[in-house]
Design goal:
By secondary structure, the chain is of the alpha/beta class. Helix content is 28%, strand content 26%. It contains six helices and 13 strands. The strands form two sheets. Strands 6, 7, 8, 9, 10, 11, 12 and 13 form an eight-stranded parallel sheet that branches. The chain has a five-stranded mixed sheet with strand order 1-3-4-5-2. The mean pLDDT is 92.
C-alpha cells in the first residue's frame, strides 16, 4: 500500500493540471508530514478516480500541485443510506467518520422526539467525512443532508429503496440481512416513542429489524448495521 499522502480536492483532475491546495492541506503537508516540493501525493475528487501528483510549491499556508497520471479509475462505492437521529457532538462525529469508512453513500440526520440535538455544523461534518475518505482509500465522499424531522424523511423516502428501522425489544422485528441498496434508520438514545413506532410499522417501505441480541448505543447500532448490510452470510 502506498504511503504517499492522499488528499481530496474539489477540482477536475487531468494530466498537467496545476491545482492550489487549501491552507489546511498545505499546513498538513509541510508542518505535520514535513514534505517538500517534489514530494509525491495522491488526489481524488469523487468523480475522476485517483491521480498521482507532485508538490510543486509549498509555503506555510499555500501549496500547489501538478497532476501527473491516473492511478485508479472511478468506481461506485456502494449505495447504502444511513438515516440516524442526531446525537451529541462527539457521537455524531463518530457516526459520520465510521459510516464514511464503511462506504455509506448518503448520511441523513433525523430529528425525533428524543433527539439530543437539533442543529449541526454541516461544514464540520463534511470535513470529518473527507478526512475519513482520505484515510480509508475510498474514491467518494458521502453526501450529508440537512437535519429533517422523521416524518419528512418517511414522506420523501424512495419507493424502490428498502428502509430498515432498528427497533430494540420488538417481538415482530426481523434480523438484519445484507442488502446493497438499502437504507438504515437508527433512532436516538432511549429509542423511538410510541407514535414514531406506529409510523414506522405502518409505512409500506419500512421493515423493523433488530441488530443483534443486545441493546446497543445509537452510534454502535449505526456501525454494526452498516457492516451487516454489506456482509454476505451475516444477519
Amino acid at each position: 500500500m502506498s504511503t504517499d499522502p492522499r488528499l481530496y480536492v474539489d477540482a477536475p483532475l487531468a494530466a498537467g493540471a496545476v491545482l492550489p491546495l487549501a491552507a489546511a492541506q498545505a499546513h498538513y503537508l509541510g508542518t505535520v508530514l514535513r514534505r517538500a516540493p517534489g514530494s509525491r501525493l495522491r488526489l481524488f475528487n469523487g468523480r475522476d478516480g485517483e491521480w498521482l501528483a507532485r508538490l510543486a510549491s509549498l509555503r506555510r499556508d499555500r501549496a500547489e500541485v501538478v497532476v501527473e497520471e491516473a492511478d485508479r479509475p472511478q468506481r461506485p462505492d456502494g449505495d447504502l443510506w444511513l438515516a440516524f437521529a442526531l446525537l451529541k457532538r462527539d457521537a455524531t462525529d463518530l457516526v459520520v467518520q465510521k459510516a464514511t469508512e464503511l462506504g455509506a453513500a448518503a448520511l441523513l440526520p433525523v430529528i425525533t422526539a428524543r433527539t439530543n440535538a437539533h442543529r449541526v455544523n454541516g461544514e464540520r461534518l463534511r470535513a470529518i467525512a473527507i478526512e475519513a475518505a482520505e484515510q480509508c482509500e475510498r474514491l467518494t465522499v458521502p453526501e450529508i443532508a440537512a437535519p429533517r424531522p422523521m416524518a419528512a424523511l418517511l414522506d420523501g423516502w424512495p419507493a424502490d429503496r428498502p428502509l430498515f428501522a432498528a427497533v430494540e425489544r420488538s417481538p415482530e422485528a426481523a434480523g438484519l440481512h445484507p442488502n446493497a441498496r438499502a437504507g438504515l434508520l437508527v433512532g436516538p438514545e432511549g429509542g423511538f416513542v410510541p407514535a414514531e413506532l406506529d409510523a414506522l410499522r405502518s409505512h409500506p417501505i419500512v421493515r423493523t429489524v433488530q441488530i443483534g441480541p443486545r441493546v446497543l448505543r445509537a452510534e454502535t447500532a449505526c456501525i454494526a448495521g452498516l457492516a451487516l448490510l454489506q456482509a454476505p452470510g451475516c444477519g
